[in-house]
# Entry
Amino acid sequence: MKRSITVCLAAILAGISSANADLIIDDSQGLALDVTSWVGEGENTSYFVVDFEATGGTSYAFGYQWSGTETVLDMINSLSAETVFEAEMTSFGDFGTFIDNFSFMSESGDPDNYWAHSLATPTGSGIIDWTAAGGGVESEFLSDGLISGWYNGFNEDFSVINPSLPLIQVPAPAGLSVIGLVLIGSRRRRVR
# Structure
């Protein structure tokens, strides 16, 4: 019985470490960003979310670790180099570089629709305060915890449509403490 308790506790702790690696979106609901893939190295982390809902698909999140000064373009280039994620871009000189289309695995956007770019840095409260990006991807600098969010299309007034975030339910740390105490308590009763 000791082995099964140890295995169960190890599985719970493994779940904690992987869940904590993702960005907590709503602490009270136990919701975190469901990150599909990680690239890069460094002490800072930003996230890239691409929402294919406009073409019948789903949203994907990617984690990007970096040091120094990096831009959204640097993050996109790293994702394209290290995963099956693809980005098609056009440079408009002084106006900046803009996205023509994204694709990931079997998902692809509509290149006839422009991609809306939103930025946010969640606080864990469940409320995401999105702002529209102000320029090309090479002019948007990354900050620790930033989400660069993309949606394939705009509202009728040309305002951005914020992406849907892929979320995963993570166990609350307090709940895991109770589970651990119950497992330890049940072991002690059986030993006596």
